Amino acid sequence: MNELTISLDTKSKIPLYEQIYRYIRRDIRDGRIGSGEKLPSTRALSKHLEISRSTVELAYEQLLSEGYLEAEPCRGYFVAEIEGLYQLRSPVRQSEQKSKDPQKEYRYDFTPSGVDLNSFPYNTWRKLSKECLQDDRAELFRLGDPQGEQGLRSAICNYLHQARGVNCTPEQIIVGAGNDYLLMLLTMVIGREHKVALENPTYVQAYRLFEQLSYDVCTVDMDAKGMNVGQLEASGADIAFVMPSHQYPLGIVMPIKRRMELLRWAENDGLEGRPRYIIEDDYDSEFRYKGKPVPALQGYDNQECVIYIGTFSKSIAPAIRMSYLVLPKPLLQRYHENCGFLSSTVSRVDQLILQKFIEDGYYERHLNKMRALYKNRHDVLLACLKKMGDSFQISGEHAGVHLLLRFEDGRKEEELIRKAKESGIRVYGLSQYCIKPDKNEEGQATILLGYANMSEEAIREAAALLKTAWK
């Protein structure tokens, strides 16, 4: 081959050498230039295209480096055998019928797990990200401490002590990508020769996780104060998974007397002498609207039997994917023996950003802002519900970002959800959180209403529609 007729665009933003490279590569891939075929010399092609020889050399060098050409001394450039060479092809676009998005069926969504992402501190997070990356710090891109960076663990330790009354050292803290990962990690620490009891109604995600990890899992009924300790003792479980600060989904705040009963249960050994543990998920502990904040259960633990777990997903954003586990000191050695080889699941860069966010006071200010914002929405929703009559009882409204409506007029949960949907509103029934049959069968339908992701105006509009739908 003595010539290649390539139409070059001198006004294009794409350099001339790259235009030549793309043309030849495409012809080789499409089989128009066959394997073993000789290409024009750089001198001949530059003369034919009326461009500099160095431009053609750049194109040929790129093709050589990618394996499309082979150079033979004193002979020239030849097309390489490219069979089996990886080729990234553009996908063929086909008209596909888009799956129906169930969210589009609703104008308003009272999801109890929502957060207000519009209030995320974008400017602050951007500023801290820039500060962390403005210097060339190669160590940030190496594997860090498996437990999480020391600076972040110290910041979390100080926050937990001041805000939640948790007694721990940074050495007891493990940072991981979400509660699910940390619970799976915990199974490697404590082993699987345990029976786990969860509250009923329960946090379904945790129940499914323990079940999939092959634990013997059971549920213990709730009363007005939280998990029934008598039933817990009778269940034969030696691990209790509880949410004392704001139980999900019932919203119960466990009083101090019940907390002491739980701790006394944990102080005694279980079946076959196995130690008992309490896993305290401090869900929604940051948001409380009545009374003084209740310290974490872990702060009352003198026997090293409470395993504390918390997350920044609710207070900052779900995508942060940073949670923390506080292990009792007797379990630390087992952690290092069984899990010390595992790498951290959270980027060191993200850990440093969060560390600065906490240490520089931004987290405290953000929490205060969100508390005020959610409190206003909480008050607006309560005011709207009071105008809807007395066909239901409200509970779980003193903390968290959702509340419950318990209907005692004989209506069924399915009927209430259906009528709300017909008005373009999504509400949630308590039955989906019940592992065992619940009181819905006795004519007490319960609906969950979350308000974190809804503006005050949206809450008023949705409540007005619900009033009409449920009258």
Q: Reading side by side through the largest sheet, how are the strands ordered?
A: 4-11-10-9-8-5-6-7
Supply Rg.
Answer: 31 Å
- Describe the main β-sheet briefly: 8 strands, mixed
Oligomer: single chain
Record field, number of beta strands: 16
Note the run of SSEs as H and E: HHHEEEHHEHEHEEHEHEEEHHHEEHEEEH
Describe this structure in words.
The longest helix is centred in the C-terminal third of the chain and has 25 residues, at 362-386. The termini are far apart. The mean pLDDT is 89. The protein has an eight-stranded mixed β-sheet with strand order 4-11-10-9-8-5-6-7. It has a four-stranded antiparallel β-sheet with strand order 12-13-16-15, with helices on one face. It has 471 residues and is α/β, with parallel strands linked by helices. Helices cover 37% and strands 14% of the residues. Helix 7 links the parallel strand 5 and strand 6. Helix 5 packs parallel to helix 11 (348-359), helix 6 (179-190) crosses helix 10 (329-339) and helix 12 runs parallel beside helix 14 (456-469). It has helices spanning 16-29, 42-49, 53-65, 122-133, 150-164, 179-190, 204-212, 229-235, 256-267, 329-339, 348-359, 362-386, 413-422, 456-469, and strands spanning 69-72, 76-79, 108-109, 173-176, 195-200, 216-223, 226-227, 239-242, 277-281, 306-311, 323-326, 392-395, 402-407, 425-426, 428-429, 446-450. It is elongated and about 90 Å long.
What characteristics describe this protein?
single chain; 471 residues; alpha/beta; eight-stranded mixed beta sheet; four-stranded antiparallel beta sheet; 37% helix
